[in-house]
Write the structure tokens for this entry.
Amino acid sequence: MDFKGLIAEAISNVTNISKEEIKQFIEIPKEESNGDYSFPCFRLAKELKNSPVNIANNIKENIKIDENVISKIDVVNGYLNFYVSKENIVKTAIDKFESQKEEYGKSNIGEGKTVLVEYSSPNIAKPFHIGHLKTTIIGHALYNIYKSQGFKTLGLNHLGDYGTQFAKLIEAYKRWGTEYDFSENAIDKLADMYVRINNLCSEDENVLEECRETFKKLEDGDQYCTELWNRFKELSLQEFNKIYELLGISFDSMNGEAFYSDKMQEVIDILDEKGKLIESKGAKVVNLEDQGIETPCIIQKANGSSIYATRDLAAIIYRSRTYDFDKCLYVVGEEQRLHFAQVFAVAKYLVDKKYTDGLEHVYYGMIRLPEGKMSSRKGNFVKVEDLLNEAITKAREIIEQREIENKDLVAKQVGIGAVIFEDLAESRIKNQVFDLKEALNFNGETGPYIQYMAVRTKSVLEKAGYIPEANTLNVNKATDESSIKLLKYLMNFGNIIINTIEKNEPSIISRYLIDVAKSYSNFYNQNKILSDDKEMQDIRLYITYMTKVVLTNGLNLLGIEVPDKM
């Protein structure tokens, strides 16, 4: 039953305001003492020219609603609080779940729409550090979430495989390449060379200028530069793929910046034809003041070489033609907000409004070590491969004494899950100090805790040996406080996913799963599930089954697996 719809229609009949307008303001109160649903009447004060308290009292006096469904209505400080009968909550939650069972939470709201998610996008020839981990985990979660709602979803890894940094590496290789053995730990050797050449560039402006000229040679197809670039790329991808395999991630496209190198001229030509390119200190730029952006967007440097904005613009043109997308999400750190504001503004001159309306920068906060900001130029970073392997090792130590099979697999599932959940536990826009000890904490509001509660539900069901049929359940046997609270959480799973998509915020699901896990723990402790009362046992088993599905599906959306045993 659609309780919100029922309440909205009843209020609409009294106020003559549309059901749809009313429904969007109906809330679920934070405090259970304020009912199951609440309507803030101050939303109608201006339209009805009356005080919220008077409006609330008038609605309560005149409302006509099924008393078998809504057992009580209160007025508190201009709010209308509605109390759903407990039996209806139980029945509605079970009916809603029963219609989907193992597929619970999925929908087809995105059918016929295409969403592109650009994420991860590490720089070739640099270690994959925890800064890259954030975009990879957020992006993969969004990929899973959109896909679960029927969107045609494509994951794009826009590799940083072009730009002046590669020219720096080429120059470094010319100077010191013979000092390194690249047969093992190649990316560490490349990173060391990168730090050395950056130090040299800081000391000598002439070296930096040489690097810029070398990049122009690379763009022009110089054989020596191209061969070295390809070698650096191959060595890097070997290392990146190890990490993606650990995280269980694959991509629909690995086209990096270099893929668009032969497509950038079209960007320049279109902007030139439309009279948008102007010269500034020898460079070609687009003035964006008319769109409220004071800083112009550089399209071509003074020496004729490109910049990553040009490649992003070429990518937008290519993606609009290739994928005909409805949304294109860029999961990139907040430090790139100006860049994407500029790119999206320039894109209005290149592609149809349909595509520019779908461009969105899904930014996240800065990642810092306890001792400060990371920098690959200075060699100050945490390697993701080391972090993930340490997490797996620590998880293996914790489960070592437990009587479970496949300990290595469980250690991997728990260790990786701990790191992923740590990255998704809080709002993506918050700055994060990445503390390895905290990430590997297996107590409290963590991924392993939720995994453990999911495993507990499996264990209860295995011990019972069956899952009851929904149509045999006695809903009156589950009206206790802990059951109702848990069922209200479970019933809200679909809304949580929709809210996550509306805000592109995976932490909404993370926090929800913590609430579900805690609520099930309370339900488990308050109620004897396996009992002599068959009707009581059946409905509590079914609620346990519902919880298992929600926790498992929710964790899977975040990219976390649930072990069979823990």
